[in-house]
Amino acid sequence: MAFVALLFTGFFLLNLYFRLKVVRSYHNLSRNRVQFVSSAIFSKTKMQEVITEYPEHETDLLRFSKFLRYSVLMASVFIVVTIIFGSVLMYFR
Question: Which domain holds residue 62?
């Protein structure tokens, strides 16, 4: 049971870390009025189009999309692991 709580806390803190990185990057982009469609976040070709529009903000754009993708991935893994461990605990109790 302690292992599950530790794993849960670890995934939660890792997800929180990536979300804070996303918020910081988004704040930098919005402060500089960089606009792009949301589909550019998950498409590298569309993100390259946005980078050609705003070449001075390339690092912020790439960092934002990278950390947002990591955050979504970690949230998905977090949900799946929680469901699996919850199911195992319910089955063996």
Answer: 2-91
Domain count, the chain: 1
Tell me if 29 sits within 8 A of 54, measured CB to CB: no
Which tokens sit at 77?
């893994």
Q: How many angstroms separate the CA atoms of 55 and 32, rounded?
A: 12
User: From its phi and psi, is residue 52 left (phi > 0), alpha (psi between -120 and 50) or beta?
Assistant: alpha
pTM, full prediction: 0.75
What are 39-69's pLDDT values in tens digits? 888 888 999 999 999 999 999 999 999 888 8
